[in-house]
Write a structure and sequence with these properties.
A 7-stranded mixed beta sheet has the order 5-4-2-1-6-3-7. 37% of the residues lie in helices and 23% in strands. The protein is an alpha/beta fold. A hairpin with a 5-residue loop joins strand 4 and strand 5.
Amino acid sequence: MTSRYEPFPLEFPDNIRLVELHAGTPSADLTCTAIQTRLKDALPYEAISYTWGTTDDQRRLGCGPSDSQSIIMVTRDCESMLRRLRSSDVSRLVWIDAICIDQGNVDERNAQLAMMGRIHQTVCRVVIDIGEASDSSDQALEAIIHCSGKALYQMELGLNIKRAVQKLYDRA
């Protein structure tokens, strides 16, 4: 991913970068502020999972530390996802691996990937963005909802059977 973004170095091994996605109207430019925090001291934030998409179609994103505003290049999918998540009236604090990890620094990338479990354990919510709607996406989502309902029913049924068997054992 080509970028003029110069990520500020992480001060401690357990630090992460978070992105404050600024509020705005749907047509306004996307802007954000990158902040650095120790993982254990992080304010409530959301982890965003999405498909990166191709790097052939890059978009500009104003994002940097609070004292400067750099332009970074993100994929079209990243920009679309940020537009869908952006609120019109309040900023959101998010962790997005493509932006919060210096992808050009192999040592940092490896260290941050090793912390991925902890990063996701400390979030207040994980948001999964499956991208733009397509001709068959409504049908696919309906199938998932249908299957999940059956799976929950089968799991509940299985628990009821397990309880019934346990009661039989308890009588002996």
